[in-house]
C-alpha cells in the first residue's frame, strides 16, 4: 500500500509540474503536395516551410511533404486541397478555373525583370486581383511563389520571327498560351507536361515554353538543344491552403503557420533568381545553345503579342487593370 501511495503522489506531482499548455497541446498534421522535381526551388520551399513550422511550434505541426507528383499531378492536388483531403498544395495557372480574373496574371510581356516581378507578386495590393477565389474554391492563396520567366526551347535555332513561325510548339492545357503562340505565328499544340518529353523526343512537337529551371529538372534539354530567352511570360505558382482547415487553427497556430509560410515564400524568391543563373550555366554545359533576342526581334515579339491583350480584355475580367497595376510597379 505504501508503494502504491508513493507512486500516486509522484504521478500527481509530475502532472502538476507539467505546464497546462503542454498537457493540452494539439497536434496539427499537414500534407503539403507539389509537382516540381526534388531539386527545384519550389520543392526546397516546401522543405523550408516544414522545418520552420515544426521548429517554432515545438512539434505541434507535423508536416508530410509530397513533391514531384507523389500525391498526383497539378490538377489532382488542386482538387485534393479544395476538398480538404490534403491541407496545402502548389498549383499553377489552373486555379483560373475557379476565378477567371487570375488568368490576367499571366499576360505576355507585362513583367520586365526579377525586381519588377517581386514588386508585383509580393505586394499586398495583389490580393485585390484574386477576385472571389476563396469563396469559389474553398481554398485560400497563402503565398505566391515562382515558376519563373518562361523561355522557348526548340529542336532548331530560333533567332527571328520567321524561324519562330515554323515551330509546332507544345503549350500547357491553358487557353492563354494557345492565344499567345497563335499571335506569335506558331502552331500551338496543348499537351499535359507528363507527355512532353516523349513528344519532344519523337518530334510530335518542335519545342515548348517553360522556365529554365523546369527545362533542367524535367530533362527536356536532352531532347531540345536550343533555347530562346524570350521572357514572354512570368508565371507565378500559388500556394493553396484549404480554407476550412486554416480557419480551425487557433490564433497561435495561425501565427506559426503564417510566419513559416511567409519566410518560405521569401526564401523561394531568393533562391529562384539564383537558380535561374546557375541553370543557364548548367544547360550550356550540356550543349544547349541559348539565344538572347536582339532588341529588334524582342520588339517584334511584343508587337505581335498585342492581339493577345485584346483577347484578354474580351475574355478575362480585370485584364487592363492588372496591366496598369504591373506598369505602376515597374516604376518603383
Layout of helices and strands, plus pairs?
Layout: H1 2-17, H2 20-23, E1 28-33, H3 41-56, E2 61-66, H4 74-83, E3 88-91, H5 114-121, H6 133-137, E4 139-149, E5 151-154, H7 161-165, E6 168-171, H8 175-183, E7 187-190, H9 196-201, E8 207-210, H10 212-217, E9 226-228, E10 234-242, H11 243-248, H12 251-285, E11 289-291, H13 295-304, H14 306-315, H15 319-330
Helix pairs in contact: 3-12, 5-15, 8-14
Overview of the molecule:
The structure is a single chain. This protein has helices at residues 2-17, 20-23, 41-56, 74-83, 114-121, 133-137, 161-165, 175-183, 196-201, 212-217, 243-248, 251-285, 295-304, 306-315, 319-330; strands at residues 28-33, 61-66, 88-91, 139-149, 151-154, 168-171, 187-190, 207-210, 226-228, 234-242, 289-291. With 332 residues, it is an alpha/beta fold. The chain has a single domain, classed as Bacterial extracellular solute-binding protein, family 7 (D-Maltodextrin-Binding Protein, domain 2), CATH 3.40.190.170. A 6-stranded mixed sheet has the order 7-6-8-5-9-11, sandwiched between helices. Helix 3 (41-56) packs antiparallel against helix 12 and helix 5 (114-121) packs across helix 15 (319-330). The radius of gyration is 23 Å and the shape is globular. The chain starts with a helix and ends with a helix.
Amino acid at each position: 500500500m505504501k508503494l502504491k501511495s508513493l507512486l500516486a503522489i509522484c504521478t500527481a506531482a509530475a502532472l502538476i509540474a507539467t505546464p497546462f499548455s503542454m498537457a493540452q497541446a494539439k497536434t496539427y498534421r499537414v500534407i503539403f503536395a507539389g509537382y516540381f522535381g526534388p531539386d527545384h526551388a519550389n520543392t526546397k520551399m516546401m522543405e523550408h516551410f516544414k522545418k520552420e513550422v515544426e521548429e517554432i511550434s515545438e512539434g505541434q505541426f507535423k508536416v508530410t511533404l509530397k513533391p514531384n507528383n507523389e500525391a498526383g499531378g497539378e490538377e489532382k492536388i488542386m482538387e485534393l486541397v479544395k476538398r480538404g483531403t490534403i491541407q496545402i498544395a502548389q498549383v499553377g495557372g489552373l486555379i483560373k478555373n475557379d476565378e477567371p480574373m487570375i488568368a490576367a496574371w499571366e499576360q505576355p510581356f507585362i513583367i520586365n525583370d526579377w525586381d519588377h516581378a517581386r514588386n508585383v507578386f509580393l505586394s499586398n495590393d495583389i490580393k485585390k486581383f484574386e477576385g472571389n477565389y476563396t469563396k469559389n474554391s474553398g481554398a485560400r492563396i497563402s503565398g505566391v511563389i515562382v515558376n519563373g520567366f518562361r523561355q522557348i526551347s526548340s529542336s532548331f535555332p530560333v533567332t527571328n520571327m520567321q524561324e519562330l513561325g515554323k515551330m509546332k510548339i507544345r503549350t500547357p492545357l491553358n487557353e492563354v498560351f494557345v492565344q499567345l503562340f497563335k499571335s506569335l505565328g506558331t502552331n500551338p499544340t496543348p499537351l499535359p507536361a507528363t507527355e512532353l518529353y516523349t513528344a519532344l523526343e519523337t518530334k510530335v512537337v518542335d519545342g515548348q515554353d517553360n522556365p529554365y529551371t523546369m527545362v533542367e529538372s524535367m530533362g527536356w534539354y536532352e531532347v531540345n538543344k536550343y533555347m530562346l530567352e524570350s521572357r514572354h511570360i512570368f508565371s507565378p505558382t500559388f500556394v493553396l491552403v484549404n480554407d476550412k482547415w486554416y480557419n480551425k487553427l487557433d490564433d497561435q497556430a495561425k501565427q506559426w503557420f503564417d510566419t513559416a509560410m511567409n519566410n518560405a515564400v521569401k526564401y523561394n524568391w531568393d533562391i529562384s533568381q539564383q537558380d535561374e543563373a546557375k541553370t543557364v550555366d548548367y544547360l550550356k554545359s550540356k550543349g544547349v545553345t541559348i539565344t538572347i533576342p536582339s532588341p529588334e526581334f524582342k520588339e517584334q515579339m511584343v508587337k505581335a503579342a498585342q492581339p493577345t491583350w485584346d483577347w484578354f480584355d474580351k475574355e478575362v475580367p480585370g485584364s487592363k487593370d492588372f496591366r496598369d497595376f504591373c506598369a505602376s510597379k515597374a516604376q518603383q
